[in-house]
Amino acid sequence: MRLKWKKINKRNQLLTYNMFLTRLFWVVILTCSALSSTFAAPTVAAGKDLFTANCAACHNKNMKDDLTGPALKGVQDRWADKKDLYKWIRGSQALVAAGNPRAVELFNKWKSPMTNFPNFTDEQIESLLMYIDATANAAPAKPAGQADQAGGTSENGESNFLWYALVTVLGLLAIALMRIISNLNNIQRVQGGLTPEKPSLRKSLSTMGAIATIIFCAVLVLGYKMVDNATKMGRTQNYQPEQPINFSHKIHAGINKIDCQYCHDGARRTKAAVIPAANTCMNCHSAVKKGTNTNTAEITKIYASIGFDPIAGKYIPDYDNWSEQQIQDLYTKWISQNYMADNSLTSMNDAGKAHVDSQWEGILAALKNDSNGKIQGPIEWVRIHNLPDHVYFNHSQHVAIGQVACQKCHGKIEEMDVVKQYSTLGMGWCVNCHRETEVKFNDNKFYDQYVLYHKELKSKEKEKVTVEDIGGLECQKCHY
């Protein structure tokens, strides 16, 4: 009888302990749920990505000055109802048609509809607004190396903390589950008249279930990391390499207003935009022999690559067979003449000789490369934008037919002294653009074949036709 009561008491203790562990289990589950909500919550970092990919082509990134679209500082304050602002971002023309005062005011002032983003979630829009506020109200940039005086954690620090917290909670959850399973096994042993085993973390981890769970979690985490890294492979957003010649798009496309397609003439007629040959540069620089900021330093590199004599003003016959010494004599003479003229000298001084030597070393570094071992020959520019081999992209289809502005993909190239990759060029980025971009049917005979769409637009059955509507999301369009 005493033995029976002992077993009953032992079983009751185990049941009580099991109830405690079960409650702990649900506490951990709820904590994980809360952390998941935190991860899904709007963030400034997410807003920055959204702004860069979708808004920066029309809105000034300083949020304080107008551009193609209005300055965004204080945008939330200018809308009486925040829900209307959300509707405006998702579909501006619907709000104008409904007679919303703010929407009508904006449309009448800017005379062009805003791009719609119907797929933006509330969290994405909130992230975007958070980034706009943070940028508009940002303090002046601090000197390099100065510590943050606000005492807050950075975006990366906060994100890392959340990841560590999630891993810790999941670890506690795994331990709680193993103890519950061990406890249930002991209840069965007591009911069968056996002595319960003493709980041991080592024994719990050595069970088949625990080993299978650990292997499953490891495969899951490693698989996720592999896929995540694979999707980022080859992506080089913000890549900004130094080029052999310091060519400034800001000077050429910005200050001098040279059209992008004058140099990259392939963009309107072929798949590739093409890198302009030095002959294209010489259309201007046979006459313009000094740079705006660099004087003779960079333009002389073009002359040395193609074999143009800037002193005589003509191309050099049989230049490909010239020795390096002949090339040095010609171009150092050219650099010397300009230096003396600019400094009103009748003879070269030590500073002038150092100036000439420096520019000649720059010519050698830029043009004498491993591929041919000599100065003469094509300029080897460093490629910035690159797509995987399995992706088909046609510049002429977008530029000539779709009439997409260069800045849509390449950013404000006319403001860049050194070009960088502006967009991610990832699949999701392209797909989102195809979903949102309206096809320009007017005055474009290429789209005359879409008779039904023309009828629907004319009868107001359809407000617009997007790239998605004409097959822009078909896999074969990009992956042939």
Mean pLDDT: 82
Number of helices: 20
Helix percentage: 40-55%
**Order of neighbouring strands in the sheet with most strands:** 1-2
Q: In CATH, what is the class of the domain at 1-137 and 158-199?
A: Mainly Alpha
Instruction: Quote the CATH topology of the domain at 1-137 and 158-199.
Output: Cytochrome Bc1 Complex, Chain D, domain 2
Architecture (CATH level 2) name of the domain at 1-137 and 158-199: Orthogonal Bundle
Strand % is under 5%
Number of strands: 2
The stretches of 5 or more residues where confidence is low (pLDDT under 50) are 1-8, 141-159
The secondary-structure class comes to: mainly alpha
Q: Sheet with the most strands?
A: 2 strands, antiparallel
> Helices and strands, in N-to-C order?
HHHHHHHHHHHHHEEHHHHHHH
CATH superfamily of the domain at 1-137 and 158-199, please?
Cytochrome c-like domain
Mind telling me the C-alpha Rg? 33 Å
How is this structure best described in words?
- The protein is an all-alpha fold.
- Among the domains are: 179 residues, Cytochrome Bc1 Complex, Chain D, domain 2 (Orthogonal Bundle); 54 residues, no CATH class.
- It is 53% helix and 1% strand.
- The chain is built from 20 helices and 2 strands.
- A two-stranded antiparallel sheet has the order 1-2.
- The longest helix is centred in the first third of the chain and has 39 residues.
- The N terminus is likely disordered.
